[in-house]
Amino acid sequence: GACARTRTRxxxxxxxxxxxxxxxxxxxxxxxxxxNLTFIxxxxxxxxxxxxxxxxxxxxxxxxxxxxxxxGPNSATDRFGLYLQTFQAQSSDIDVMEIDVIWPxxxxxxxxxxxxxxGADAVADDFPAIVTNNTVDGRLVGLPFxxxxxxxxxxxxxxxxxxxxxxxxxxxxxxxxxxxxxxxxRAEGNQDFWGxxxxxxxxxxxxxxxxxxxxxxxxGTIVSPDKVITINNDAALxxxxxxxxxxxxxxxxxxxxxxxxxSRAVWHGGNAAFMRNWPYAFSLSAAxxxxxxxxxxxxxxxxxxxxxxxxxxxxxxLGISKYSKNPEAAAxxxxxxxxxxxxxxxxxxxxxxxxxxxxxxxxxxxxxxxFLPRMLPVLEKAVARPSTATAPQYNEVSNIFFSxxxxxxxxx
Length: 412
Ligand code: GLC
Description:
The chain is α/β, with parallel strands linked by helices. It has helices spanning about 25, 45-60, 75-90, 105, 120, 130-135, 155-160, 170-185, 205-215, 235-245, 260-270, 280-285, 325-335, 340-350, 365-370, 370-380, 385-390, 395-410, and strands at about 35-40, 65-70, 95-100, 135, 140, 145-150, 150-155, 195, 270-275, 295-300, 315-320. It has a five-stranded mixed β-sheet with strand order 2-1-3-11-6. Helix 2 packs antiparallel against helix 14, helix 9 packs across helix 10 and helix 9 (about 205-215) packs across helix 18 (about 395-410). The protein is globular, with a radius of gyration of 21 Å. The two termini are about 35 Å apart. The structure holds alpha-D-glucopyranose. Alpha-D-glucopyranose binds next to helix 9 and strand 11.
């Protein structure tokens, strides 16, 4: 399978196209006394490149534990499939892995308990809800790495131009603003302009978007915390019909094949008034090559009525495979990479937001990203996908959900 082609100890260059050029030291054959670890990372945006730099830093400082970072599939759904395949083969090819916030329950049986390696102290400053999420039957199977929540990015310049005093708080308002701005920009000659872009492909990201529509319409969380299937209700149905009505009107027909980066590409080029995305998009949107630099902000997502709104809770953890031959060295590396200094650097450079409460008061960080403290209320109110209630079958539940939502969106 894919994993056999990504061995660190092999002299040959990895054949897997998804694998990234590893630093020369990491690709070298095993040396006596040196532990070689493989770390599988990935995700949209600049996060991976930054993590590669951090790994290079680690390798320079730790000649006895050398880490080879490889790039997993961008889509969380595909990444889950790859991990499962590796675990089912009980393969020791992967030592450390990035674990989505929804996976601890599904993958716990294949993951090492960090409590055996000083995990309890390491998570003392992490948001308790994330630590609880990562604890399965008393075992801490993931170290919080960064957290995530859905946001509504909007063009401050265009809101002003069309006379809107602030971002929408309801879906009705969003529709009205998106349509007005789209009509105006097209009339001025930009035929590629769209009102609202989001993630409509049939994958985990669609579960996140659709949960936001459903939950913010008072339609529940698909499966309730006490394990009752609740998705069959009128509020949920209406919210999906509403999303269907956007397509071809304020959202491009191609939105049903968008993941995070496809929607960001439209936004980044200055061709969307609104975008639903995660915090990683903030730093990229503010970058020099962005058409929207200095012209945007991010706000909580709207709801069906004022007062109702929802951000799906996302985020990633570091986990260690139970089949790793070097769990102790892997834990050392993971504790460092998930640590406060490393999280601060990640937030500063690529706006992946910390799981450490103290960093939300870090002066340097807050000065660099004033939006960071504004994330706190969003995170507090964020809605969790029903991964705890449905574990170890969350992935299956989500697949059924996003496939059916996709059928609605594509008119089937
Ligand atoms: C982000 C979130 C993750 C979610 C994924 C869906 O990476 O952090 O929780 O599953 O997006 O695309």
